[in-house]
Amino acid sequence: MERTISVMMGKGSVNHNTRAFSAKNVDKERSEYNVEFCNKDIKKVYHELFDEAQERYNAKQKRSDRKIDN
Question: What is the pTM of this model?
Answer without folding.
Answer: 0.50
